[in-house]
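Sequence and structure are kept together here, with a separate record for every protein. An example record follows, reproduced without changes.
>
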Amino acid sequence: MSAIIDYSRIIYAEKVPAFIRMLAHDLQRQVYMMPGEFFSKLSDHDLKYLHDCVETSNNLTQDEDDALPDCIVHLFYVSAMLCMAEGGDLTEENADQVQKTTASFVVLEHLYRMGLIDVFRDSYSYIDLDVPIAQAKPT
């Protein structure tokens, strides 16, 4: 079963960073967006926040009863909204892959802004995972 996103809930959630609330607001009005479009407009500050969330996610050790850190929930919001905005499905079966794909976009975007690689934002996709999205800078 595909997930349904309550954009209003995200928009009015005070703990959610403004750039994620703005993404929800934009997608409430314009339901289609490619992931690369989101990342091209993302500020360095907001990218750093997402990058920190990815690192937190990678280092997470938690008991089932523990609440997830806010940044993990925020990373999930971004993943879910971008996947569905592209026309992808978010299900229990693919939620982990969607999260990993978002983490890849975040890390690649971070490396790109550091000047270490070139990225092909037009190819960022949750649907077509076999397309190259980055390459090393020529030396």
Helices lie at 7-11, 18-29, 35-41, 44-58, 70-86, 95-113.
